[in-house]
TrEMBL record:
Pfam family, any one: RecO_N
Similarity comment: Belongs to the RecO family.
Tree of life domain: Bacteria
Gene Ontology CC annotations of this record: bacterial nucleoid
Record's keyword terms, sorted: DNA damage, DNA recombination, DNA repair
Task of the protein: Involved in DNA repair and RecF pathway recombination.
Region forming the signal peptide: none
Domain DNA replication/recombination mediator RecO N-terminal per the UniProt entry, residue ranges: 1-78
HAMAP family: RecO (MF_00201)
Organism, scientific name: Bacillus taeanensis
Organism lineage: Bacteria, Bacillati, Bacillota, Bacilli, Bacillales
SUPFAM superfamilies xref list: ArfGap/RecO-like zinc finger (SSF57863), Nucleic acid-binding proteins (SSF50249)
One GO term of the biological process aspect: double-strand break repair
Protein name per the record: DNA repair protein RecO
Amino acid sequence: MLVKVEGIVIRSIDYGESNKILTLYTRESGKIGVMARGAKKANSRLSSVSQLFTYGQYLFQKSSGLGSLSQGEMISSFRGIREDIFRTAYAAYVVELLDKLTEEKTPNPYLFELVYQVLYFMHEEIDPEILTFIFEVKMLSAAGIAPEFNKCANCGTMEGQFVFSIREGGFLCHKCQHIDPHHLKISSSTAKLLRLFYHFDITRLGQVSVKEQTKAEIKQILTTYYDTYSGLKLKSKRFLDQLDQFKID
């Protein structure tokens, strides 16, 4: 049976001399795997639509295992991402994180729209680091490890100055911060942005400007939290961290 889907290539692996195995994240069916025969050949009609980050319409032969890609029509290559090594690195991490935190053939139109918007805004040269933070925050729920961003994880108060506790799984107010001596001190701006990223509609995002200190605090929280609770060790994350060091130097 032939199936038509709207999808984004989130993984592309060479297979044999001329084929590729693609992982598509689709609006209709969630994550699916398809074999793109001959896609490694430069003159193949499947070559351009098999590139990482490509957004398009895909027609494939459905089967119990890997589907067989029959044809594809590109909607966007998100070329702006590929033209910059930093945007490419952030986008690679985003799609790998999506891949690792989702099950196959489980439709989730919200996640499809989320990854599409993140890639679109990266292509449009919105700060890729902020976009990655937003994606990481929103994916915490999909991973089943969402922390408490709305109130103190211990007493429930919504007022006052907060710190972040990895151990307690969220904000702690100034009265409760003593229960975790290893809490992370954060500014009020960091607390506000984490809460905003968790709740707001990414389609309403405009140009963003965040202080480097605030970025550093958000990165420390998200990196440590994912390392502690997700169990993921992603190659794209290691490469991104190396690039960030290069950028700082």
